[in-house]
Amino acid sequence: MFFKKLDELADLNSSRFHAIESHKMLFAWIVAVVAIVVLGYCFHGQNIVFSGIAEADETIISMPEAVEVVKIHVIPGQEVKAGDTLVELARPALAVRMNELQRELDAIEGRGNINSASIDQKVAEVQSDLNMRRNTINLEIEKLNTQYQQNQALSSKLKSISGSVKADSNSGILLSIRNLKKELRVAEANAASQIRLLRGSKGLEKTSNKAEIEALHREMEMIKRQIDEQTIIAKENWIVASVDVRDGEKVSSFNPIITLTHKEVTLVRGYINEKIVARLEVGDAVEVISNSGEHMMGAILGMSSRIVPFPIRLLKMVDMPLYGREVTIRVPQGNRLLLGERVSIAEKTKIPQIFKESVMQGDEK
């Protein structure tokens, strides 16, 4: 009985020991988690807050070649719609080249017409010479035929004439007729050959002229498109941010002519000290806070790779310039930010990586 009581007492002490050990382990785990959070907070530091200016997407109208401003159809601050004419430009060199091409085209067409008429005239001359030669030969053949018939009639009446004399006379006439007919065939063949050559050269010249004319037409179409592109048409709704030229002014290549912007704020351009810029990355979520206290989410689109001066509006003291990195942030559509409004940008709190790993390990257990 005594030993049984000792065993029960020992079991009771053992259960209490295990309970105490379990509580110690739980307490140690809680202390470790708290330590990790504190270390992570100390490692991460306070949230970054920096300033920026609300802006909108902009597009700058410029030309790759030097142009002359003919007429400006808009003024700064004007709202334009798709299809509205913004500015009319001109490149004198295009008009000069178009006139040159037109003169070349007229010259080729005129030269082709002259050559074609000249060839037609030569063909007509060959045909005329052939007709004259044909008429002459046919007339001689007709005379010889008449003479031959007269000889035949005379020989039948004059029986005293010997047959040998008659045969010799008639043979000479028939031979002359055959020679004249042969001469006519040769003349017709030569004339046909000359006409074929003349008409062939006319076809070759037309083909050559056609290729030149097509090349000129292609270049003229290209220049016409370039001339049409000198009239700048709005392709969507914009607000005219600035007009950088005047009517009649000559503008160098790629110099801004008109700057267009959207009516609604689409991005925020923030400026941050380079010492803490490493804590931000492209794609990070940030919170944009307006002067009126409106909060909205944003996302970092890009970060400049060089140090730039802060805008004067963001300086607390104008005579003490600040430098840092430029951060471009996309804000959602439908926001109530004003163009040019100064805003605050706050970094969203990040869970330290070591804490996330600890939580994951705890879940696995």
TrEMBL record:
Main location: membrane
InterPro entries reported for this sequence: MFP
Residues in coiled coil: 177-233
Keywords: Coiled coil, Membrane, Transmembrane, Transmembrane helix
Entry's localization field: Membrane
Transmembrane segments: 26-43
Membrane-protein topology: Single-pass membrane protein
Gene Ontology CC: membrane
Record-linked PANTHER family: MEMBRANE FUSION SUBUNIT OF EMRAB-TOLC MULTIDRUG EFFLUX PUMP, TRANSPORT PROTEIN COMB
Protein name: HlyD family secretion protein
Species the sequence originates in: Fibrobacter intestinalis
Organism lineage string: Bacteria, Pseudomonadati, Fibrobacterota, Fibrobacteria, Fibrobacterales
